[in-house]
Amino acid sequence: MRGWRNLRSAVGWRNTLIGLQEAGDASAARIDTPHGQESFDYVFGADGAQSAVRQAMAVEFEGYTHRRQWSMADADIDDGHTN
Predict the structure, then answer these.
(1) According to DSSP H, which parts of 2-82 are helical?
(2) What is d(CA 32, CA 40) in angstroms, rounded to the nearest whole number?
(3) Which of 23, 27, 35, 79 is 20 to 30 A (C-alpha) from 54?
(4) Residues 6 or more apart from 49 whose CB is under 8 A from it?
(5) Cross-strand pairs, 20
(6) Out of 15-19, 65-69, 77-81, which region has the weakest mean confidence (pLDDT)?
């Protein structure tokens, strides 16, 4: 994903996959966004093992999930500490 900014695309938040249609080598995704419904030629599902994209494509999750929930963040915090 290092070059995603060069793809002239945007990462969307608060979007819901409405439908995924495949026809031969092509596919189209219908997504409900805060600005209304839109259609896209490509979709990147990064919503985990229970992915709506994965379910719409009938692709099973191969692997494992962790029992505990966790998050990762990269942040600059100015809390007055030097270490």
Answers:
(1) 52-56
(2) 11
(3) 35
(4) 61, 63, 65
(5) 29
(6) 77-81
Which DSSP state fits 47?
A: S
Measure the CA–CA gap between 10 and 40, rounded to whole angstroms. Answer: 12
Structure tokens at 65: 């999930």
Give 62 or 10, the one with higher predicted confidence: 62
Dihedral sign of CA atoms 69, 20, 32, 38 in order: positive
- Residue 5 pLDDT: 66
Side-chain-facing half-sphere of 1: CA atoms under 13 Å: 6
| Site of tokens 């030629």 | 41
What is the average pLDDT across 59-78?
82
